[in-house]
């Protein structure tokens, strides 16, 4: 029996551009991400990596193929069922942190927990514990504007993991940082991922970062291939 947390099978996706014909972004993508595995996704600009991540995270639907999370095929399910599965199973990180500017670092991490029904005391305690794991516990009361770019992204990492997802999806999570900060922040992310034991699919242009993950797959011309 497969131990895959995420399983994509035969995923296709096309877009109409208003011009004659259509753009085929994904042409039969198959990918399994096993429990506790960290997979790097590399692709040229415009190759469809963001589309693939959105489909994997149930934010978008494929034209064909199936998306399975923890053994549950969610293809064709209702929007409500997909939303509930996404909230329970998936954490997202983007290139830009998208933190709420009027709230502190701790509050940004507590909010998704409160929305899920966690008590304020427990939400604050988990938020602080996550911040301490990525080395910014001392900045818990600071608002995003008072944090450096690297600190803001660490807070975003913690927010993505606040509700204990099984799968982390990240789209160029250090792409907006300078090389030195990128390395430090990526180390913090990997430590957090390994410590929590979750699975991750991380899109990056940085091949050095990709080599630090368990394996690398490349998306090009709509197809996925393993990188030796």
TrEMBL record:
A Pfam family it matches: ABC_tran
GO cellular component: membrane protein complex; plasma membrane
Superkingdom of origin: Bacteria
Residues making up the signal peptide according to the UniProt record: none
GO MF annotations in UniProt: ATP binding; ATP hydrolysis activity; transmembrane transporter activity
Biological process according to GO: lipoprotein localization to outer membrane; protein localization to outer membrane
Residues of the ABC transporter domain: 6-227
Keywords: ATP-binding, Cell inner membrane, Cell membrane, Membrane, Nucleotide-binding, Transport
Assigned protein family: Belongs to the ABC transporter superfamily. Macrolide exporter (TC 3.A.1.122) family.
Protein name per Swiss-Prot or TrEMBL: ABC transporter
Organism in which the protein naturally occurs: Tateyamaria omphalii
């Amino acid at each position: 029996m497969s131990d895959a947390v995420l399983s994509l099978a035969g995923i296709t996706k096309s877009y109409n551009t208003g011009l004659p014909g259509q753009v085929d972004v994904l042409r039969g993508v198959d990918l399994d991400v096993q429990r506790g595995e960290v997979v790097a996704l590399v692709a040229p600009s415009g190759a469809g990596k963001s589309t693939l991540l959105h489909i994997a995270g149930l934010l978008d639907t494929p034209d064909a193929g199936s998306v399975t999370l923890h053994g549950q095929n969610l293809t064709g399910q209702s929007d409500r069922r997909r939303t509930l599965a996404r909230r329970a199973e998936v954490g997202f990180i983007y290139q830009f942190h998208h933190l709420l500017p009027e709230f502190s670092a701790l509050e940004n991490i507590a909010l998704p927990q409160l929305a899920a029904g966690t008590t304020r005391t427990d939400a604050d305690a988990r938020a602080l514990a996550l911040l301490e794991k990525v080395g910014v516990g001392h900045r818990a009361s600071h608002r995003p504007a008072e944090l450096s770019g690297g600190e803001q992204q660490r807070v975003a990492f913690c927010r993505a993991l606040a509700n204990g997802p099984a799968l982390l999806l990240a789209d160029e999570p250090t792409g907006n940082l300078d090389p030195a900060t990128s390395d430090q922040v990526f180390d913090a992310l990997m430590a957090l991922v390994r410590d929590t034991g979750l699975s991750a699919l991380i899109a990056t242009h940085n091949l050095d970062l990709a080599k630090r993950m368990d394996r690398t797959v490349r998306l090009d011309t709509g197809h996925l291939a393993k990188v030796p």
